[in-house]
Each structure stands twice: as C-alpha cells, then as structure tokens.
Fold these 3 entries.
Entry 1:
Amino acid sequence: MEVKVLNLSGQETGAKVQLPESVFAVEPNDHAIYLDVKQYLANQRQGTHKSKQRNEIAGSTRKLHKQKGTGGARAGSIKSPLFNGGGRVFGPQPRDYSFKLNKKLKQLARKSALSYKAAENNIVVLDAVDFSDAKTKNYASLVAALNVATEKTLLVLPAQNNNVYLSSRNLKKAKVVTADQLNTFDVLNATKLLLTTDSVKTLEEALAK
C-alpha cells in the first residue's frame, strides 16, 4: 500500500512510502486485539482498593447485651458486618491485576490494529517532525495543517524528541509516542495515526518477523 508523504505544512512532498503488507495489511485477529487491550487496561489499575474486615475495625469488644431474654437477635460485637460501622464481608483487598501475554500474540495485535487503520485510510505519513522549541502552538499548527485538529491523533516518532512531546502535551486530543512504545490501545483509541518515514521503517523492523 502506497501513501503520499506530506511535510509539516500538510503539502505533498512528491515522495511516496510503501507501507509493508506484513505489518499494515495482515488479516486482523480481533481476539488478539481484545487480549492486548485488556492487558493494557489491567496494567493501568493500581489495585490499592481496600476495605476493613471486622478484625481491623477499631471499637469495643464488649458484648452488646445479654444472650437471651431481650426479644432480639443475639449480638456478640459492635464490629459485626450487620451493624453500621462494622467490618465488610468479602470486601476488596489489594491485588495485582496484570497478567502475561506471549510476545507473538502482542505483535499480532499491534499489526491487526495497524492494518485496520490502513484499511480505513486513517494513516498519514510525514517526511519528518521536529520543532526548534517546545511550544504548544507548533503542534497545534501541525494538526491544523493536516486538517486533523478536531480528531484524536497519535504521532509515532522513530526516537524520543522532547520538543515535539512537550509541544503536544497540553492538547487534549494529541498523543506522541516512539515506535518502541506503540501499543494496541493507543492505535485503536486514535482517529488518525501520524507516522514519519523513519517510524514506518522502525515498525517494519520490529513487527515484520
């Protein structure tokens, strides 16, 4: 699949880049995508939720009233889950939500997500992206020139570029990652995928195995 290469002004440079079929034209595997996104979201969870059981509640240990003769139910402790302020039965406890996925499955999921974007013509390829300074207006001008200012965009760079990253940070619908940080969730969450010619090569080297 050939895509025209644009410059930072949104104009065609006359060059074209070939998106490798082994990465951008595979048969999508929806279940692999589901597992990879599920793992990504699970890894975002802190898992620090905690409720107190009856043995952790601060309170008196005296028996509330005598066992028989009151006409009410037997009660042994104010900490019982039956009373307000008592412990919670089977409440949440701290836990780790992360789980393991095979490397090949994660690669298949990323290739499937990229193939969906390519099939929908939602991939824009730029010759290079670099700013002389870190200013939000630089990135705002870029997405405006590409007519994607109102859409969620994901810019994939071949290597870390602080000026580009810092310029995008204040924009709600913009995200910048490097090719080695690319994940399935970010690809699917973005409406438009912005690549550079170098990041296409980097993705091919990493995923076309």
Entry 2:
Amino acid sequence: MRRMILVPLLIIVAVLAIAGGVAYYLYNNYLYYSTDDAQVTGSIVSVSATSAGQLSALNVKQGDRVTAGQVIGTVTPPNNGNAVRLTSPIDGTILQVAAVPGQTVAPGVSLVQETNLNSLNITAYVDEGQLDNVKIGQDVDIHIDAFSDTTYTGHVQRVVQATAGSFSLMPTQDNASGNFTKVGQRVPVVISLDGNTGKNIVPGLSAEVTIHIH
C-alpha cells in the first residue's frame, strides 16, 4: 500500500521539477540574453612617419603611457632637412613598437601602435533573432575569461548596422550554385565597460555578456 502511494508521489514530484526547470529556463530567457561570443575591443591607433627618412630617435617602448601631443620620436629626411617629430595622437598606452632607431622609414608605414586602456569596450555578437530585444542603454553583466572572479558592468552603446559576416573577405556561401543553406547571422553589439577594477584588461581578451533585455 505504501509503495502504491510512493510511486505516484515520486512521479508528481518529478513532473513538477521538470515543469519548474522549464519555467525557470523560459523566464530567464525572457529577462536575459547571454553569449560567450564576445571580446574586449579598443581603438588601436598607429603612428607613422609623414615623410621618408631615417628614424633618428624613438623615445617609447611597449607598455609606456603617453599623452596626446607628446613627442615620441623623430625622423631625419635624407636631404638633411629639418627633423620631423613623431607625436602621439591620443592619451594612451604603447601596445607595439615596430621600428628601431637608425632604420630607414617610409611614409604611412606603422612605427608604433597605441590604445587608450581607459576607454575599452566589449563587442558581443548577438543572434539576429534576438536583435529586436536589444536596445541602447540596457544593463549588461560582463565576465572576462582572464579575470573570472570579477563581474563587470556595462551598457549597450551601439548596435552595428551590419552582420559580422558582412565584414568577411570571403563569402560565406555561393548562392549561384543552387546549394543555398540558410545560416543564422550574428550582429556586433558594442557595450561599454564601466571600469577595470585595477585589472590589466587589454584588447582581444575573450568575454561573456548577459544583456538585461526586459
């Protein structure tokens, strides 16, 4: 008798547990959209010579902080004219130095790359089916893989007006062949990063975001 009562009770409990899990999943999906297809991004600026000549001085190295207008090097023209000063266009941190003093440089060739580590963003790639739910200003929870013990906050700043595939150099499929296969597209969404909490966050780090869509 006791077993006859226990079996239906266990079935009811199991059904309720499944129903509760489904309800939680649907409710969570209603409130939030999450993706781990995201990374830290920042504007990387190149400094190059405006004229050909010899790089007579280079005053910075990787990791140095510079200010806008700071002289970071000089180029001496081959005709012994006045030296041309290389200046930093932004307040930032030197990411890469691709030249050494004494070498010959050409106009337009990048000598130094820098970025402002205090003005980083997160670029997340959102499924096109969720695009209608993503709005400017929505709160975002951010986890950066390199610092998994820290939760960052941000806000949706901009939805890029093109899919990620539009920026690819190679087409994703050949529609002319007649073998068309519909592929779900992803759209880049730019998210602010509200502070780095003292961590060494740099462009390119992988991240996961949760957007509060409702």
Entry 3:
Amino acid sequence: MIGSFNSEEQLKNDSDYYNISLEMHRIWPDRNDGYWLHIEQAVASNKDKPYRQRIYHIFEDNGVIKSVIYSIPDEKNFVG
C-alpha cells in the first residue's frame, strides 16, 4: 500500500476520468501497534492542493486485519 500512484493511464483510455494522485507513506515507524499511514489525494496537476488527507491505522486484532481511518484537523498544515 505504500507508494505513489496515479490514474494517468485510465485517463488516457477514458476521458471521463481525472488524473488523480495518491500518496501513501508510513509515519511513526517505531510504533509497535500496527502500521500508520498518511494518505493524500489530489488532482495530479494540483498536488499542492489535496482534496483529501487521512491517517490509516492498520493492525491485527485476534487474527483479524483491521483498518481505522482518521481525519486530520487543519490538514492544510500537513500537505506534502
């Protein structure tokens, strides 16, 4: 899940789509309660103005993989 992704190929094949950029980067790697990821989505031509930022917490709980998604207050302070 970690990496940089976009929908440029999809846009080339279907003009109804936008070229969306998705950045997923691990944060707090020293924590031992699962993986914490910062997710940022933006139109590729405006990556400095994302329309969605979230924190994902992915962890195992009694044999079940769980994902908890958090919103970010004042997310403009965390762009990039």
